[in-house]
Design goal:
This protein has about 260 residues and is of the alpha/beta class. The protein contains 8 helices and 7 strands. The structure holds S-adenosylmethionine.
């Protein structure tokens, strides 16, 4: 009888702990992001082009509905025997990334780069919400690069289901998207005006190499960095805030190249 009581207490303890862990996970990764997204939406409803923004977000949600970039990344790392934390997967959140990009004021003659683009969500956000001359994603893992490229073909088919005005303006924007399968250390950035790098998991040595590379950017270019900082006289910090990412809130810094 005594032993049964102990086992019962043990079971209750395990259940309570499991529930607490699940509740914390659910709060951090589901409820909190949902509430923050709702707040962003409320603010954007005052935007003069809210209808177009809403329709674009719906399009992007539908475009990525049946994809699982986390699983693709995990399987590819396993296949290629990659153990480095630099390949831990995480993504932007649609409207949050729109508000970040809005702060760098993208222009129709400008080119956007995402260094380490994964399935291409940041590239699609830049290309569809803004008028740019090119939006380019660079990804080292072949399976993620293939997934990103497949999304271009999917987008071309999906756009036909939307109303004609939407179709007309966005077909051109989709053709301006490009994905490169290479190490971003080797990427030529001579035509880059806006560079995004989700640098949270990069090792200090890699980050220093990236900074040296970014020094080649032309004056007036903007760099959007997640988590890491750039301490160099050529880069002026123009904005810093906590923004929503797929794993929660993260510090975004925006620099202008002088
Ligand atoms: C945190 S994810 C960011 C994905 C995307 N930029 C976003 O924010 O939605 C980082 C991506 O960078 C890729 N990556 C890491 N090191 C890389 C390198 N040296 N060259 C190219 N891609 C790299 C990873 O495979 C992963 O897909």
């Amino acid at each position: 009888m005594h032993i049964r009581y102990d086992n019962f207490s043990y079971a209750i303890l395990i259940l309570t702990l499991s529930f607490l862990i699940f509740a914390t996970w659910f709060w951090i990764y589901k409820i909190k992001p949902y509430l923050i997204n709702l707040k962003i939406k409320k603010q954007l409803q005052q935007h003069s082009e809210w209808r177009r923004l809403e329709e674009t977000e719906q399009f992007l949600i539908q475009l990525y509905k049946k994809t699982n970039p986390y699983q693709t990344s995990r399987k590819e790392c396993k296949r290629m025997a990659i153990k480095s934390n630099e390949f831990v997967y995480g993504e932007i959140s649609w409207l949050s990334f729109f508000t970040i990009l809005d702060k760098v004021n993208p222009q129709p003659y400008e080119t956007f780069y995402d260094l380490g683009c994964g399935s291409g969500k940041a590239v699609f956000t830049a290309a569809l919400f803004f008028d740019l001359s090119k939006a380019c994603g660079v990804e080292l893992l072949p399976a993620l690069h293939t997934l990103a490229n497949e999304q271009i073909d999917k987008a071309k088919s999906l756009i036909k289901l939307f109303d004609t005005d939407f179709y007309k303006s966005y077909t051109k924007r989709i053709t301006q998207i490009q994905f490169l399968n290479e190490n971003f250390i080797d990427t030529k950035l001579s035509d880059a005006d806006i560079v995004f790098i989700n640098a949270t998991c990069l090792k200090p040595e890699t980050w220093q190499t990236v900074i040296n590379k970014l020094l080649q950017l032309q004056s007036g270019s903007r760099v959007i960095v997640n988590t890491k900082r750039i301490e160099h006289e050529k880069f002026t910090l123009i904005h810093q805030a906590k923004e929503l990412m797929s794993w929660g809130m993260s510090t975004i810094s925006i620099y202008k190249v002088t």
